[in-house]
Amino acid sequence: MTEHPGLAPDFQALFEAVPTPSLLVRPDDRFTIVAVNASYLRATRATRESLVGRGLFEAFADDREHPGATDGRDLRASLDRVLATRAPDHMAVRRRDVPRPGGGFEERHWSPLNAPVLSAEGAVAHILHQLEDVTEVVRLRREAGERDVDASAAPIVDDDGRNAGVVVTYHDAGEGRRAEETTSRSEQRFRALVTASSDVMYRMSPDWSEMQPLDGRGLVASSDAPLRDWMQRNLPASEHALVRGAIREAVSARRMFELEHRVVRADGSIGWTYSRAVPILDAGGEVVEWFGVASDVTARKQAEEENDRLEAEAERQRRIYEAALSNTPDLVYVFGLDHRFLYANEALLQMWGRTREDALGKNCLELGYEPWHAEMHDGEIERVAATRRPIRGEVPFAGTNGRRIYDYIFVPVIGKDGRVVAVAGTTRDVTERRQAEQEIREQAERLRENDRRKDEFLAMLAHELRNPLSAIGNAVTLTTRSGLQEHIGWSMGVVTRQMRHLTRLIDDLLDVSRINRGKIELRRELVDLTSILAAAAATAKPSMEERGHTLEVATSHGGLWADVDPTRIEQVVVNLLSNAAKYSENGGLIALRARNEGDEVVVSVRDRGVGIPPETLPQMFELFAQGDRSLARSEGGLGIGLTVVKKLVEMHGGTVDARSEGRGKGSEFTIRLPRAARPVAAAPEGTAPAEGGRIPSRILVVEDNVDAAWGMAQLLKLLGHDVAVAHDGPQGIEKAKEHRPEFVLLDIGLPGMDGYEVASRLRREPSCKDAVIIAISGYGRDEDRRRSKEAGFDHHLIKPLDHDVLITLLAAPGR
Questions:
Q1: Quick one: angle between helices 729-739 and 755-762, nearest 10?
Q2: Max CA distance (Å), the chain
Q3: Interatomic CA distance for residues 636 and 461, integer angstroms
């Protein structure tokens, strides 16, 4: 296909197919010719190279042999009218000869038409210059004028009232035969012209009521006789009103009829015609008939409609793509091969903080990318263009959203000739995804570490449980086999110590569980921590003495007042003292210090033991964490004591931290608690309750474990109490009716009827109405205590029993 600079490819085929000789002119100072179609080249026998790119007046300069010629002046005036009015302008018929193939020139006459091509904004973007070859018509007129005739001339006017030609009518003033011959010759030439023309020629009556097609040419059906129903036969009904309006205007003004409209073609299909007709006037200026030419422009109109459809579809697709690209959160863009942005979607413009006009045509460096970043993308664009393969990467960038991480891909854009014409890219913000991935990796690592610690903990738990059980087993076996009194005393001591050790392990486990689930409730009171520290030191004293440690206690004078739960703070200090004893060589020095410091009470425990490695310090208070200290394995421990310490201190609004200068250099743990004001009148310290006497009581023990029930009954009998035993719920209710107990020690986990139901039924028995019912259970959750209270229990003790607590309850005044 011929390339036409200035014409989009979609319009080239249409322009080439137009049968009318046509030039396309740019309305600049030179009126530069930008395109010429094949019809023009055939009609004028010119070459495309001699026309395209030249000024219109350079290509068609006036003939120097005719200084008076006005062709150039008339043409420029017509072009100026088109620019001024933005309407078509018909010029008078011109003579311009064309070269003959064998040499010389052939006379030709043309009827030029200059029409504007408007832009979307309504400005004249180009001017279409078209020619109609009227040489034969001019020749006929000339021959008629040369004969001896009485002639009359009538002007042919266009729709603007200007002269478009002259129609000459004549009759022979000489011999009739000569006139006859001349008329016959002219008629033959006229018929030859009609036959040779590719257009349809027709005559119309003055009022257009009758039409005489001279030759249908397939556009309309030919007819030898005038047609009065020509409009119904040859035009679709939808066109009638349009055509009638144009006819009325032409007849009223006696001006040229010119219209493009639909027509019923000879084969019955609907086509398009471009029709022009001029009035033939008599000497008095009256219209005697109309002579018209109709061109079949169906192919052009179909091409135009198809082009319009393609343009509309392309515009629709463009809007769809633009809408999609503008509304995606991804950044979409296109680089030219010069590394400058040809396109950027709305998301990218917003990220840059720039307008489209400000951004397009610039490269990365000009848009504020860091030099290394711009250089990296320049190299990637070159590689994509050279290899025709995509490139993907990830890069940080600081835009209007702050510094983010972006994942991008560059791909080649391939042209029709197979070469890379641009590089397109998309970029996605992956900051949150990368952060999530990092968090997942860290979480997975934490889970792996927790699994490792859990496995170690379970191994330690098994070890810690087996040790005291092994000691108890050995003591029992020795006593059973020897029966010696000295062995019995020793064995009882072993059993007592190991039971206390097991109780501490279980209490620590339960405390961790309760703290993590938020089930521990602090029973706060305003106390002087001096007494709590003294109690903690007394509790830890046996383990200190067992290892030969020296414990130094130093507290500030004037009281260490705080609003705390005394039991829990004592538990915290005991844990720290026990740790210090455990991780110090025998005969070590351990210091317990306490002081007021600003708004805080500061308590510290320092030892000169094995110390803590620096890499272990950050994890010392985490669950199941335990420093790799040699004494740890010899002294035991589950690695949960410091976790309990940290949680309890934080529940009081305080903090705890650990310091150590390294292995073998000891360690120090420091607690900071909010300080409270000293009460106005504090109770005197050191007051102990009076020791009450032992009061024998009737006691019912309900326990399904026979050994446990027998042992408890024997202990109570040694204390002087009257004891009855039952091993299930129904038996316990019957025993209560007989024994009428003052105290009931009731196991909750009984088979069949559990302890809650037994207690509820005992409360309805007259024999137990005033009895003190004490729950004995392995469950010590807040929920378990609440249920026991609702069932009618007065107290809730945890297995294994603290016998001192039980004895205190049995001796309590008022029962």
A1: 30
A2: 179
A3: 9
- For the entire predicted model, the pTM comes to 0.37
The answer, yes or no, to whether the previous bond of 99 is cis (omega within 30 of 0) is: no
What is the number of residues in the chain? Answer: 815
Give the span between the Cα atoms of 263 and 269, in whole angstroms.
Answer: 8
Q: Helix, strand or coil for residue 560?
A: coil
Mean pLDDT of the chain: 80
In whole angstroms, give the CA distance from residue 512 to residue 429: 43
Greater model confidence, 380 or 543: 380
3-class DSSP assignment, residue 481: helix
CA 178 → CA 17, 138, 174, distances in Å? Answer: 45, 22, 7
Question: Residue 676: which of 595, 570, 599 has the closest Cα?
Answer: 599
Please, what is the Cα angle at 688 between 522 and 681, to 5 degrees?
A: 65
Instruction: Give the three-class secondary structure for 116.
Output: strand
| Cα–Cα distance for residue pair 654/378, rounded to 1 Å | 58
Cα–Cα distance for residue pair 426/332, rounded to 1 Å: 5
Confidence check: pLDDT of 3 > 60: no
* Closest among 122, 97, 126 to 110, alpha carbons compared: 97
pLDDT digits (tens, 9 = 90+) for 131-170: 888 887 777 667 655 444 343 333 333 444 433 333 333 3
Statement: residue 507 has pLDDT above 50: yes
Helix/strand/coil for 670: strand
DSSP code, position 619: G
Contact 260, 250 (CB under 8 A): no
- Strand, coil or helix: what is 755? helix
What is the chain's alpha carbon radius of gyration, rounded to the nearest angstrom?
A: 58
Residue 777 above 90 pLDDT? no
Q: Are 172 and 147 in contact (CB under 8 A)?
A: yes
Please tell me the distance from the alpha carbon of residue 19 to that of residue 11, in angstroms, as a whole number: 15
- Which pair of tokens denotes residue 107? 């006379």
Sheet of strand 331-335: strand arrangement: 341-344, 331-335, 420-429, 402-414, 391-399
Q: Are strands 589-597 and 550-555 parallel, antiparallel or unpaired?
A: parallel
Question: What CA–CA distance (Å, rounded) separates 463 from 456?
Answer: 10
3-state SS, residue 133: strand
Residue 39 and residue 18 in contact, taking contact as beta carbons nearer than 8 Å: yes
* Alpha helices, H only, 214-330: 230-234, 240-253, 298-327
Q: What is the mean pLDDT of residues 330-343?
A: 92
Q: Which residue has the higher pLDDT, 551 or 683?
A: 551
d(CA 776, CA 116): 108
In the predicted structure, residue 259 carries a pLDDT above the cut 60:
yes
- Residue 334 Cα to chain centre, angstroms: 21
Q: 560-571: per-residue pLDDT in tens?
A: 999 999 888 988
pLDDT(436) > 80: yes
Q: Which domains does the chain possess?
A: 1-133 (3.30.450.20), 328-429 (3.30.450.20), 440-520 (1.10.287.130), 522-674 (3.30.565.10), 698-811 (3.40.50.2300)
Report yes or no: 679 and 526 within 8 Å, Cβ to Cβ. Answer: yes
SS3 assignment, position 699: strand
Q: How far apart are CA 296 and CA 265, in angstroms?
A: 9
The rounded percent of the chain whose pLDDT value lies above 70 is 80
DSSP calls for 507-552: HHHHHHHHHHTT------EEEEHHHHHHHHHHHHHHHHHHHT-EEE
Q: Tokens 């024997």 sit at which residue?
A: 714
Omega of the bond prior to 390 within 30 degrees of 0, cis? no
CA distance 347 to 333: 10
What string of DSSP letters covers 774-796?
A: EEEES---HHHHHHHHHHT-SEE
By DSSP bridging, strand 561-564 and strand 525-528 are antiparallel
What integer pLDDT is reported at residue 206 of this predicted model? Answer: 92
